[in-house]
Design a protein that fits this description.
With 133 residues, the chain is an alpha+beta fold. It contains four helices and eight strands. This is C2H2-type domain-containing protein.
Length: 133
């Protein structure tokens, strides 16, 4: 973009926050992202609704978000990833109709579970978002 050079460096601080330093054409801009801890597994994720939901689906959801319904195929994914697309492209010739999307069915359960795993943060983030809409 217009010959500009951008470089980002991230560091996790002892308090769990992430310090991101972005250098754009020599000017340094700092951003601190607060991390929150899952009460079940103690992993830390960014204090964003989506980060908490992705953590829940990846580490605490026993039902797959996506399933391949191709004949003889029992592939399941617990989060959306590039591997999902790679599988459909390489094994099924890009036939995405074979990909069963369970998000609509699972989302209410995942939101409820996320609010239990991050009780002080997820509900607050959800309520603030709804107020701002």
């Amino acid at each position: 973009q217009n010959g500009s050079k951008k470089r980002v460096r991230r560091k996790i601080n002892s308090d769990g926050s992430i310090e991101a330093k972005m250098e754009m054409n020599g000017a340094i801009e700092e951003e601190k992202v607060t991390m929150v801890e899952c009460i079940d597994c103690k992993r830390k994720v960014g204090k964003y609704r989506n980060s908490m939901l992705i953590h829940t689906s990846t580490h605490h959801c026993d039902q797959p978000i996506f399933e391949c319904t191709g004949e003889g195929c029992d592939k399941k994914w617990y989060s959306l990833s590039a591997r999902t697309k790679e599988h459909i492209e390489s094994k099924h010739g890009g036939n995405y109709s074979l990909l069963k999307d369970n998000r609509a069915v699972l989302m209410p359960m995942m939101k409820a579970k996320t609010s239990k795993l991050f009780p002080d943060y997820y509900s607050l983030a959800t309520n603030l978002r709804e107020l701002l809409q």
